[in-house]
Design a protein that fits this description.
This is Phosphate/phosphite/phosphonate ABC transporter substrate-binding protein. With 270 residues, the chain is an alpha/beta fold. The chain has eleven helices and eleven strands.
Amino acid sequence: MKQTLCVVCLTLILCRYGWAQPITFGIVPQHSAVELAHKWAPVLHSLSSMTSLDIQFRTAKDVPTFEQYLLLGDYDIAFMTPFQYINLPKKTQYEAFVKASDSPINGLIVVNKNSDIQTLTDLKYMTLAFRSSELSASTWITQQELKAAGIKVYSRYVSSDESVYLNVNKGFYPAGAGIQATWESSSEQLKENLRVLWTSRDYPTYVFAHNTRLSTDTVTEIQKALLQLSDTVEGLNQLTTLGLSPLVSAQHGDWDSIRTLSSTNLPGIQ
């Protein structure tokens, strides 16, 4: 009896002081794991300080692996592209609850600054570098827009937008796809050696989604903390570093504008 009471008391103490089961926060691997951790650590530290929760950074070695983790429900909270979110099978247990208020996604195509390529039409039948998932933002947007324009290209996949830029810089491919956020955070040397050939229209922003296994109280607490990040200069700077505007509440239907396109043009996460 004494032993049982001790276990119960210890459990209550651990929960009270934040030593309960951590909340895993999965981030889509737009950059290397080291760079992602560097950018996201301040945000997750702030969230942990603002809540009674131990919120821990997680990612994956590449985008396809991240998508498999989503299918398995491995993350408690996940930051993903809108294309990953809308293509998750209905049985998957993630539900959008937060988004950036004004941070649209723009796809882009880069070429060497001295390249003869001047228009999208010049890319016809060329081999372009893409990030290694059809549902990464840079790949989805660019392939969608090229297809709509009737410009056939061949695809070669690399691990990240960074790899795309590096491969184009080294001359391995004449052009490659990225997004505005990863381009802006690239090194000055890359920006000097490459130029943006084309930029897409605005697409809906990234998704903060919670696993439905989390309790309502936990979800509400995390949501409140996310929305309050921009209330301080420090928190606003942390969001700016991630290329995000202040966060607002979100719901599943906020991405309906791209659901019809997705259902007719691309497969879901397999």
